[in-house]
Every structure is written in C-alpha cells, then in structure tokens.
Amino acid sequence: MKSSSKMITFLLAATLFNAFASAAPRQEPIQPIEAAKVENPAKVELGKKLFFDPRLSRSGFISCNSCHNLSTGGSDNLPSSIGHNWQQGPINSPTVLNSSMNLAQFWDGRAADLQEQAGGPIANPGEMASTHDLAIEILRSIPGYVNEFGAVYGNSKIDLERVTDAIAAFEETLVTPNSRFDQWLKGDNSALTKAELKGYELFKNVGCVACHNGPAVGGNSFQKMGMVAPYETDSEVEGRSAVTGRDADRFSFKVPTLRNVELTYPYFHDGAIWSLEQATDIMARLQLGRTLTKAEIDSIVAFLKTLTGEQPQFKLPILPPSTPATPRPQPFENKPAG
Fold first, then answer.
1. Which residues contact 202 (CB under 8 A, 6 or more apart)?
2. Tens digits of per-residue pLDDT, 54-103?
3. Domains of the chain, with CATH numbers?
4. Which residues are catalytic?
5. Rounded Cα gap, residues 253 and 94, in angstroms
6. Do residues 220 and 106 lie in contact, with contact meaning Cβ atoms separated by under 8 Å?
7. 219 in the Ramachandran plot: left (φ > 0), alpha (ψ -120 to 50) or beta?
8. 4-17: per-residue pLDDT in tens?
C-alpha cells in the first residue's frame, strides 16, 4: 500500500509539473512559424536544383545560393553581394529564409512574390548577367532537365514561368520553425531564460514590435528608415520611391524579418552595421526616439537570438550534366549578355 501511495504521489507531481511547464499557447503580436507542407516534392526538388545551378548565370559561377547561402542564414554575410565580374551590388542581400511570408520581395518591394523575384537576378547585368532566353536555352540543352520538367509539368516545355515557379516552390520550403521563442509561444515555460523574457518585454514596451510582428517578425510593411532622425549612409539607394515614383516613399524599405537575425549580419539595406547590439541601438534611436542603456540593449539582443530556428536540412542536389549543345559559360567576359 505504501508503495502504491508513493507511486500515485509521484504521478500527481509529474502531472502538475508538466502542466506548469507547458501552458496554453500564448497570444502575442508574434506568432510561431509552422513547418513547411510540401505538396509537390518533385517540383520542389527541381526548384532546388535550379536554385543551386550556376549555369543560369553568364559566368557559370553564380547561383541563387551565392547571394542567399543556405549555410549562412540564407544571406551572404557581405555588405552587398558580388555580381558578375566582381561587380559590387548596390544593396545588402536579404535572407531567403522565411521570405515566403513577406508582403513583397526585394527591399523596395518591386516583386510581388517569390516567383516574380526569381527571374530578376538572372537577367540583371550586375548580378547573374545572363538573359532569360540564354538561361532557357541552356536548360533546354540538358536532357536531365528536359526529362525533369516533363515529369513535373506534364510535358517537356521549359520556359521562364516554369523555371521561376519551380524555384519559388523550393524557396517556400525554406522556413525555420521551432526556435526557442516559438517553443515558448506554444506554451513551453522552460524554453526561455528570465533574461531573454525580459528582453522580449523590452522589445514590446520600447515599440519594436510595432513593425516587427507576425510569424516572420517583420516583412509585412514598408517603413521610412529614420523616422525620428535621419540615417547617415553612403548608399544611394532610395528605397520604395524607385517603385512608386512618390517622393513620400524615399528611404522607405520593407521591414526585414528578425527571424535568424543573429545569422544574417551585416544589417540594414546598406549592410553597414555588423553588430546586432549596434543595430538595436540605432533602430531604437532613429525609429523610436529611445536611447537604450547597454543593459537594455543586451537584454533585447538576448531575446533576438532566441528567434533562430531550425535551419533547412536536405541533401545537396546533383545537377544534370551539360551536353555539347549547351552554351558555354563566359566567366571572364566583361560585356554582359545582351
């Protein structure tokens, strides 16, 4: 009897502990990221190959992964990306991770979705420096791709719409669920430390959450860079006004996601800030008119690091080989394709 009583007591204690440790999901301005649901694995696999294939570039050297490196948080960790013939890009490369949650693509929002975005770098003379016609010609010359497009789309036609559709399908799977903050949002009281929770409360109270909210903790609005005081930069990029033509949109940019932010340095559209602490200080002062103490900054940064989720895991694709009919790369040609 004594043994049974001890067992009942132990079970009751365990039940109470589990109930305390895992409460109900929390209602917060930030929502958890859910794992990707793959409806067409063959299309995703084709898109993965295209994402990693440097033959879409004029040089045969640059792929989508060059600027959106999936080993480094979906970005290239450079102030601005390196394009064809070592051209310096005009703007920091945003992460591709969780980019399907953005209201639009690119810093200025000039592409409505991932499919529209995917075609831009291929034909940009400062990036992959090819043309859409040349890229399609290359893919059509590779039997492995012809067969794979046929299997995915029902016939072997290869065109820009299908290429960008497949790349977008792969990019939609590049989500990072199950961060420690997501675990806390779902009710795990043990997922965050007291210091990290304090940082989240500061993040909300200071006002950061006004722009950085939703599952991606950003990406869902355009905001002026320097609401309270101007942001000093050598960059000539003018932001959203390049798309809308409205002077009121000068220096407005898509609010970046803060998911995996500890991995996606350097920060801001000009990639000028390498420290997450410095970026937090600048945002508080220029956007919110708040001067934070070092302790407050450290607390917010501690919270931000809990937003690092599970990184995409997959086998690297084995690309189908070229043939004698495949146009040859031009890695040392200064003149872009025309």
1. 296, 299, 300, 303
2. 999 999 999 999 999 999 999 999 999 999 999 999 999 999 999 999 99
3. 41-171 (1.10.760.10), 180-307 (1.10.760.10)
4. 127
5. 12
6. no
7. left
8. 555 555 555 554 44
